[in-house]
Amino acid sequence: MKKVKVVLATLASFAMIAAPFTSYAADPQIINNATTGSIAVKAIVSSTYSISLPAELDLSYDSAGGADYNYSGEYTVGVKANLLDGEMVTVIPTDYNTSTHTTTFVMNNGTTDATANVSQPVYKWTQAAAAADDEVQAVYTSYVTKTGKVTALLESQGTYNGTLGFTFAKATTP
Predict the structure, then answer these.
(1) Separation CA 129–CA 85 (nearest Å)
(2) How far apart are CA 49 and CA 83, in angstroms?
(3) How far, in Å, CA of 92 to CA of 166, rounded?
(4) N vs C: which end of the chain shows fewer Cβ within 10 Å?
(5) Among candidates 117, 134, 118, which has minimal Cα distance to 126?
(6) Does pLDDT of 173 surpass 90?
C-alpha cells in the first residue's frame, strides 16, 4: 500500500509540474530587463460552407397542375457559409439549365418511365448582397434557404422512384 501511495504522489507531482509547460503552442519568449516586447501573430483564413438538402421528397397529387395525373412537391436548399470577398457557393441540380432555371430527371414505377421537371430559381449563395434574381446572400450563422419544385405527370399506378442529384462548388463571383 505504501508503494502505491508513493507512485501516485510522484505521478501527481509530475503532472502538476509538467502541466504549465504543455499548454504553450510555441516556446515562450523570455524577456529580461527590457521595456518592450512583441508577439508574432498569424491567422489562417479560409472560406467554408455547409449545404442542407432533404434526404427524400414525396410528391403529392396537385389538382392545380392542370392535368389529372399531375404530382408535385417542394424541397428546400440551405447554405450556411463563411465566404471570402468575391466568393460564392453554387448548389446546382444535375443537368441544370442556368438560363431557364430548370432540369429534368426520370422517375420509374418498375414498368413505366416518367419525366420529372425541376424548377429552382436560386442556385447561387454569395458573400456580398445578391445582385441578380438567381442569387441570395449567404451568412455563417444560419442556413439561408431557397425552395425548388419537382412536378411530374404520373399516369400509371405504382410507386415511382427517381433521384435528383446536385453538384456543389465554391467559385469566384463574376
Answers:
(1) 11
(2) 8
(3) 5
(4) N
(5) 134
(6) no
**Least-confidence region, from 18-32, 89-103, 135-149:** 18-32
Domain 48-172 has CATH 3.30.160: no
Closest CA to 166 of 114, 105, 107, 87: 105
| Domain extent listing, the chain | 48-172
22: amino acid identity, one letter: T
Secondary structure of residue 157 in the 3-state scheme? coil
pLDDT at position 170: 95
Look at the alpha carbons of 110, 115, 119, 120 in this order and tell me if their dihedral is positive or negative: positive
Closest to 93 (Cα-Cα) out of 144, 166, 24: 166
Q: DSSP letters of 21-90?
A: HHS-SSPPP---S-S------------EEEEE--S----EE-GGGSSTTEEEEEEEEEEEEEPPTTEEEE
Rg, the chain, Cα only: 29
